[in-house]
Design brief:
- Helix content is 39%, strand content 21%.
- The strands form six sheets. Strands 2-1-11-10-12-13-14-15-16 form a nine-stranded mixed sheet, sandwiched between helices. A five-stranded parallel sheet has the order 4-3-5-6-7, with helices on both faces. The protein has a four-stranded antiparallel sheet with strand order 17-18-20-21.
- The chain folds into three domains: 226 residues, 3-Layer(aba) Sandwich (Rossmann fold), CATH 3.40.50; 190 residues, 3-Layer(aba) Sandwich (Rossmann fold); 141 residues, ANL, C-terminal domain (GMP Synthetase, Chain A, domain 3, 2-Layer Sandwich), CATH 3.30.300.30.
């Protein structure tokens, strides 16, 4: 078989034999790093399967996982799949109402949760989810009588070795899985509307893993360390920082939390990090914050190094030219003096690459990371495409693009610019929704992405915006908001931005503050305030933001410029409901939350914050 594996559990089984003594997963517990080998990891997944089998789980049953990304997630995932059952991932940030919808739609029998807080979500909706028979929890706590709980330790019976007969029965279940069998339903978090259940089969992921590494010419191997922090409820984190490393015998190091990523990079020294642009933006911002507070000598040295680095990257990767001896010497010198020390401070001394997806990455930030010796390979895909459709590689790279197509993947561009794809990674369909499945494909079987883009003469694909998110102004201009938002949030004092203007005469924006920078400015200028909400209304801060917006406006066509804006004190967040778990803007939620402020920006009395352009 071309793809080597008959299913994802078969993939783990083969890796457990081939890499048995190598570390499969690594995590921190009580301040100490714990390592589990491939052989042991596989054994533990068989124990999970044994426990689920005793609870009556069989092929085709649905078992949900409601948890943060952690080692238990991986064990539960493969334990469920070992029986041919379907994994129903649920974001740990979902509300009880959202959890109820997914459990009812999927008819999950068992829910595996991480802790007490996730258990109580199920308890709140107990009467609404009759299909749920039992909850399995990783952490110990006292449950309510209304909803029984089994601990993960009890489920696996970890202290009881697998009998040979049990092993044979479970491995027989693995053998009975067909590559076309469904293994998961992923409910799209979405920026609008009710989530759809994306039904993926083993072939979708296995083909994607195979063609990604083939395209990258063996980039991933058994010596790699992946830092895993993206939610496994989303296909990007699950496929590319979970299944991909397992296929190649790499180590998966689990970050303790998003807040501790910087520390965990130092702990685990990763070689590959699969990420979304927001993390790169935050690292970029922190680097420049540190430079801002450095001595004048170090500041000047850093900026000269960056200038040389960008010139080198422009020559080699944009112009595709051989750098002059002088430029090569200067770049090597600055790499020794500045960039190598920066990489060491970040804990990325043996680093290969970031792999970025989920949203567009600002081109200047991308070039910056390449300049300092931390390359970023940007790709593109969706939950429905398992996820990768195209990706940049070290040999085929264009900044601003999402790379070229994977092998066996075909592209078609509709008259309105929508990108449509066909390939082995494309989903089976939307679970229990024939109508939406039919709408998702054209008459030739190409999947409609809903994204607008183009392909250049070299085969590189460029995404310009979401079809449904295009703003059509009252003047009839079609405007993509994402590029404008990216420019705004990459200024010094703006943390996040939402651009609005559909059927309106001009564009406006809701802006959030980069609190650290704004507080620093307030201190330098002796501004008086009680809390951050006072700063959002302070005239000097408003003037400061006007200047930032005007800088962005100079880079835009006149009809794309931001005419008015409002500053809100709280940053957009997952918890606040403004962001999806993959940090995309929930446009309808943001508009609804700030509708009064947004509509005020269209008043003619000049009462709102107006830009000069």
């Amino acid at each position: 078989m071309k793809w080597q594996y008959s299913s994802l559990p078969d993939m783990l089984r083969q890796s457990a034999k081939k890499y048995k003594d190598r570390v499969a997963i690594s995590y921190k517990k009580n301040g100490q790093i714990v390592d589990i080998t491939y052989e042991k990891f596989y054994e533990l997944t068989l124990m999970v399967a044994r426990g689920l089998k005793k609870l009556g789980v069989k092929k085709g049953d649905k078992v949900a996982i409601l948890s943060e990304t952690r080692p238990m997630w991986s064990l539960a995932d493969f334990g469920i799949m070992n029986l041919g059952a379907w994994v129903i991932p649920i974001y740990h940030t979902n509300t009880p109402e959202q959890v109820s919808y997914i459990l009812n739609h999927s008819q999950a029998k068992i829910v595996i949760v991480s802790d007490r807080s996730q258990y109580f979500k199920i308890l709140q909706i107990r009467d609404e989810v009759p299909s749920v028979e039992i909850v399995v929890a990783h952490d110990r706590f006292l449950p309510d009588k209304k909803l029984p709980v089994l601990t993960f330790y009890q489920l696996t019976e970890m202290s009881v070795p697998l009998e040979e007969k049990e092993r044979q029965e479970i491995e027989k279940s693995i053998d009975d899985i067909d590559i076309e069998d469904t293994f998961t339903i992923i409910y799209t978090s979405g920026t609008t509307g009710v989530p759809k259940g994306v039904e993926l089969c083993h072939r979708n992921i296995i083909s994607n893993i195979y063609y990604i590494n083939k395209k990258a010419e063996g980039l991933v191997d058994e010596n790699d360390v992946f830092l895993s922090f993206l939610p496994y409820s989303h296909i990007l984190g699950r496929a590319d920082s979970h299944y991909l490393p397992i296929a190649h015998g790499s180590k998966i190091a689990y970050a303790e939390s998003i807040e501790k990523i910087a520390d965990n990079i130092l702990d685990f020294k990763p070689t590959i990090i699969v990420t979304v642009p927001r993390l790169l933006e935050k690292i970029y911002s922190r680097i420049f914050d540190a430079v801002h507070n450095a001595s004048d000598f170090k500041k000047n040295l850093f900026h000269k190094a960056i200038q040389t680095g960008q010139e080198y990257i422009e020559t080699v990767y944009v112009k595709k030219e051989k750098p002059s001896a002088s430029l090569s010497f200067k770049y090597k010198l600055f790499d020794n003096l500045v960039f190598s020390k920066l990489r060491e401070k970040l804990g990325l001394t043996n680093f290969k690459t970031f792999v970025s997806g989920g949203a567009p990455l600002n081109q200047d930030i991308n070039k910056f990371f390449w300049s300092i010796g931390l390359p970023v390979l940007e790709g593109y895909g969706l939950t429905e495409t398992s996820p990768v459709l195209c990706v940049n590689t070290f040999d085929k790279l264009k900044f601003g693009s999402v790379g070229t197509l994977l092998e066996e993947t075909k592209l078609k561009i509709a008259e309105d610019g929508e990108l449509l794809f066909k390939g082995p990674q494309v989903m089976k369909g939307y679970y229990k929704d024939e109508e939406k499945t039919k709408e998702a494909f054209d008459e030739e079987g190409y999947f409609r992405t809903g994204d607008i883009g183009k392909q250049d003469e070299d085969g590189f694909i460029f995404i310009t915006d979401r079809k449904k998110e295009l703003i059509v102004t009252a003047g009839g201009k079609n405007i993509a908001p994402a590029p404008i938002e990216n420019l705004l949030k990459n200024t010094k004092y703006i943390s996040n931005a939402f651009v609005y203007g559909d059927k309106k005469p001009y564009l406006v924006a809701v802006l959030t503050m980069n609190i650290e920078r704004v507080l620093e400015y307030a201190k330098e200028h002796n501004l008086k305030y009680f809390d951050v909400s006072d700063l959002a209304k302070n005239e000097k801060i408003i003037e400061l933001f006007k200047k930032e917006v005007e800088k962005v406006n100079k880079q835009l066509a006149r009809y794309e410029t931001i005419k008015k804006f409002v500053i809100v004190p709280q940053d957009f967040s997952i918890e606040g409901g403004e962001l999806t778990p993959t940090l995309k803007l929930k446009r309808r939620v943001i508009y609804k939350k700030y509708a009064d402020k947004i509509e005020c920006l269209y008043n003619e009395d000049g009462s709102c914050y107006t830009c000069s352009q």
